[in-house]
Automatic annotation (TrEMBL):
InterPro entries linked: F420H2_bilvrd_red/Heme_oxyg, Pyridox_Oxase_N, Split_barrel_FMN-bd
Gene3D superfamilies: Electron Transport, Fmn-binding Protein, Chain A
Ranges of residues in domain Pyridoxamine 5'-phosphate oxidase N-terminal: 26-120
Annotated GO CC locations: cytosol
Name under which the protein is recorded: Pyridoxamine 5'-phosphate oxidase family protein
Coiled coil (residue ranges): none
Keywords, sorted A to Z: Oxidoreductase
Oxidoreductase keyword on record: yes
Recorded superkingdom: Bacteria
Length: 163
């Protein structure tokens, strides 16, 4: 599996697009998970970068996190707000690991407090998911073409130009 730091080094084009679009939408992304019956679920989520990892955490008692606890596969898509995708977009695929290390959780919540002032330091998360990436893609539209950049774990990025 590939953590965020490794991914950013291996796929700079896709990771830059993901980070840029993540910030531009106030950290909002769309998370695809699988329901218990196998059908897909799409949910808003605000993933967070912390200590070289991508974390998918949030409010307790949400079905999207129950989905991930049951089946750790996910797709994370930057929130596209422009039908012409002028600013690009990116998708990440992978699996999550539910981390139970209280010291990591304490550092994470302190980081949130330091950055935003939101105090969740005494909160107990039902799930605390670290993302391991298996593949990714991004789209950039320029002039009369579109570049689709594809990355798979263990491989270099590949750009496919579409006219």
């Amino acid at each position: 599996m590939t953590n965020w730091t490794e991914f950013a080094a291996a796929a700079p084009r896709v990771s830059e697009t993901f980070v840029r679009r993540h910030k531009a939408t106030g950290n909002l992304c769309m998370l695809a998970t699988l329901r218990a019956d196998g059908s897909p679920r799409i949910s808003p989520v605000e993933p967070r970068f912390f200590e070289g990892e991508l974390w998918i955490v949030g409010m307790p008692n949400t079905t999207k996190f129950d989905d991930l606890a049951r089946d750790p596969r996910f797709c994370l898509h930057t929130a596209t707000v422009d039908t012409e995708v002028k600013e690009g977009d990116a998708k990440l695929w992978g699996v999550v690991e539910d981390v139970s290390d209280d010291a990591v959780r304490a550092r994470f919540t302190q980081d949130i407090f330091d950055e935003t002032g939101m105090d969740c330091r005494d909160e107990k998360f039902d799930h605390f998911f670290r993302a391991d990436l298996t593949s990714a893609s991004s789209v950039q539209v320029a002039d009369e073409h579109m570049d689709v950049t594809i990355w798979k774990a263990g491989q270099a990025e590949k750009v496919v130009r579409k006219h």
